[in-house]
Structures are given as C-alpha cells and as structure tokens.
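Input (structure):
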C-alpha cells in the first residue's frame, strides 16, 4: 500500500496552479477588454483570431502529451516540461499585455495573434499539461488525488480572488492605461514563475508497482489518439473540462464588462469574484469527504445541480445585486467540487487505459484537460466578443442592446452549461469500472 502524501507536498503541488492562474485567469478575464478598450483592437476581429489561436491548442496538446509520454529523465516525465516552459511563458505573457501603441489596427491584431498563439498553444500547453499529468505521476492513491485536487483549487480560488479584486486597482496604481497593464503583467509573471519553481522542486514522480506492471507497451502517436478516442471516459472528461472552461472564459470576460457597464464600476468585478471564489473555497474543503462517501460521479451530479440552481437564481433576479450575488454564491458551491473532481477523473481515465490496454500514455490522456481548458476558455471569451460585435459594440460605449447582450452572456448561457455538465456526469462511472478491472487482475 502506497504511503499517504504529506500535506506540505500537496500544498507545494497546489502552488503550481495558484501561480498558473496568474497567467491563465488573468488572460481569460482581462485580455479581451484590454485588447478592445486599451489597445484599440476591433472586437469582432480579435475575438475570432483568439478562437483560431485556440484551435492550434488541440494539435499542440496531443503532440506535447505524446512527447511527455516519451520523456525519460532524472526529473521524470512531466517535471522537465513544467520547468523549462515557465521561462518563455512568463516572457510571452508580458509581451501580450504590451501591445505597441504605434501599430495600426491590422498590425495590432497580428501582434496579438502571434503572442496569443505562443502563450496558449505552445508555452502554456507544455506548462499546464505537464502540471496536470503530475496528478497521475506523483501518486496512485485515489484519496490523495482528490485531496490534492481540493487543495489545488482552494489555492486557485485564492488566486482568483486576488486577480479579480486587485487587477484593475493595480492597473490604476501603476499608472492606468498601457503602462498599468504592462506593470501588472510583469508582477503576475513573476508570481507565476516563482510558484511553478516551488512545485517543480518540491514533488517527485513515483511509480506504483500494482499499476506499473501493466505498463508494458509504448505505442505511437496515431495509435495513442485512437486509444483515447475509443475510450468513452476520455471523451466525457474532455467535455466536462470543455464546459467548465467555456464557463470560466465566459464569466471571466463577461464579468469585466458586466462590472464596467451594467454595474457602472469596473472595480465591482472584485465583488463578483469574491462572491464566486469564497463559496468555491469552502466547498473544496468538504469535497474529499463527499467523494469518499458518495463517489466522484454522484458528487459531480449533485454539484452540477447546485450549479444550475444558482445560475437560474442569477438569471431570474439578476436586476437586483443582492439576488445576483446570492445566485453566484449558490452556483459557486457547485463549481468547487466539480473543479476538484475533474482532474482526479482524468487520472482515473489514465488508470482505465492502463488497466484495459496495458499502455503508458498518461501525458496524452491528460491532454483532455489541457485541450478542454484552453479551447473552452477560448470559446467562452470569443463568444462574449461575438455577441458584443453582433450588437455593434465599439469598445467605447454600451447601448441598451449591448447591455442586454452582456446580461445574456453573464447570466443565461451558464444555465445551459450547467445542464450539460449534469448530463456528462450521468455517464461518468469510471471509478466502478476501474475497481472491477483491478479485482480481475
């Protein structure tokens, strides 16, 4: 029986995602409003380009996952990738929020597209995919995995609160406009880098003999893709990641516009973030107990139900700030468990493939998380931009139709996403199947 992980190692692992959100959440929440309102890019053009850039992720994720699977070093499979990718990712993020003012609109769009592709399709792909793969590589203990996920997303919630409440304030402190945004990007890049290094040098990849003996074959890239797509649990987990991060990209981006134009104060985004992150943090504390008692599938379905109820409350009573905040709080109590469960489910899918196919493709298996995260957040961000462009938003003023579209983005679309999440969890019984497969060995 594998010994339980020490708390400090779980915390050090979680710091990787804490730091990563100073890249991911910062870009997801503020990139579009920076591009349109500060850099002066066309909202329709830039939204479409951002989604095209996300399309590259599907290819680079699968390639990077395969490369991780083929990596054999003293640091292990995933840790080397987590280490080296931190350097260019930090630099590219700073450049993304430093669009040269002297460029024309077309040149600005090209500049943004290039650095967005570098950040998302290459450097963040290598960084986040290797980080997620560590969930499977540093322990095979199911309770440890859930606990790691809970600690990880509690730290993510803290990062979200910091980013949501302080970003616009820090921009003003550092000089507003372009100067302020670049300064904040530098600060966040440093935080990301330091936290990533703590994770890299605090955890170690280990093997579990009971599972390791099943890893007798290595297969090519094409065969790996075929194995993944034929595993229904991989497909379901991919869609759960996709839906959750469409929501994240949508809420982060639409929330900035909602605070600025509907609530009339861009700093109110911090209030919306607190209403979302604190309940999420609290729910993560009890997630390990819930999954131990009910399993991940039932816990996910219950959390998805809360997600839908909270979204409906916000939709119906969104004209009242207290009712809106109440809906966000309820919805966030559902978000927390799902956030912790999905990474653990991806690790269970990796086990399922090893047990059924006797092949070692953890890196590519975790591409479901990386692809879902980045394409989902890209779709969520682009959707807001498309809807705003549809009603003629010019980056300077909000007409009645623009305000209506902001409300639809922020309040209505999450209801649909929540319903689809519940449907996915209805078919996600990988825990039970893995138990039977292990008993048969």
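Output (sequence):
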């Amino acid at each position: 029986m594998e010994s339980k992980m020490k708390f400090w190692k779980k915390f050090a692992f979680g710091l990787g995602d804490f730091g990563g959100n100073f890249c991911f959440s910062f870009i997801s929440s503020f990139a579009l409003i920076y591009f349109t309102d500060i850099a002066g890019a066309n909202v329709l053009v830039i939204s479409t380009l951002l989604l095209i850039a996300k399309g590259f992720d599907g290819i680079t994720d699968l390639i990077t996952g395969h490369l991780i699977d083929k990596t054999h070093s003293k640091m292990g499979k995933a840790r080397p990738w987590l280490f080296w990718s931190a350097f260019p990712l930090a630099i590219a993020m700073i450049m993304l929020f430093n669009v040269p003012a002297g460029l024309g609109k077309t040149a600005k769009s090209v500049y943004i597209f290039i650095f967005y592709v570098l950040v998302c399709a290459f450097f963040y792909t290598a960084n986040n995919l290797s980080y997620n793969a560590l969930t499977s590589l540093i322990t095979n203990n199911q309770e440890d995995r859930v606990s790691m996920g809970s600690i990880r997303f509690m730290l993510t919630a803290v990062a979200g609160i910091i980013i949501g409440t302080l970003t616009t304030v820090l921009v003003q402190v550092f000089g507003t406009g372009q100067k302020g945004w670049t300064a904040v990007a530098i600060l966040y890049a440093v935080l990301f880098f330091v936290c990533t290094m703590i994770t890299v040098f605090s955890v170690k990849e280990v093997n579990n003999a009971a599972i390791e003996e099943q890893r007798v074959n290595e297969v090519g890239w094409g065969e790996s893709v075929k194995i993944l797509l034929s595993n229904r649990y991989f497909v379901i987990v991919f869609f759960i990641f996709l839906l959750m991060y469409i929501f994240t990209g949508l809420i982060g981006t639409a929330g900035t516009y909602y605070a600025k134009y509907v609530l009339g104060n861009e700093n109110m985004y911090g209030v919306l973030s607190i209403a979302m992150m604190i309940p999420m943090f609290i729910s993560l504390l009890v997630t390990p107990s819930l999954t131990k008692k009910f399993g991940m599938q039932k816990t996910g379905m219950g959390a998805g139900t809360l997600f839908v109820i909270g979204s409906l409350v916000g939709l119906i009573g969104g004209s009242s700030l207290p009712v809106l905040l109440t809906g966000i709080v309820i919805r966030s109590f559902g978000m927390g468990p799902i956030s912790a469960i999905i990474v653990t489910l991806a690790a269970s899918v990796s086990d399922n493939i090893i047990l059924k196919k006797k092949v070692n493709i953890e890196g590519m298996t975790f591409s479901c998380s990386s692809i879902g995260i980045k394409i989902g957040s890209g779709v969520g961000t682009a959707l807001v931009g498309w809807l705003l462009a549809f009603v003629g938003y010019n980056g300077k003023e909000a007409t009645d139709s623009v305000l209506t579209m902001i409300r639809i983005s922020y309040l209505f679309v999450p209801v649909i996403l929540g319903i689809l999440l519940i449907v996915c969890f209805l078919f996600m019984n990988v825990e039970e199947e893995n138990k039977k497969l292990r008993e048969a060995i």
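Notes: Residues 62 and 225 are 8 Å apart (CA to CA). The chain is about 80% helix and 0% strand.
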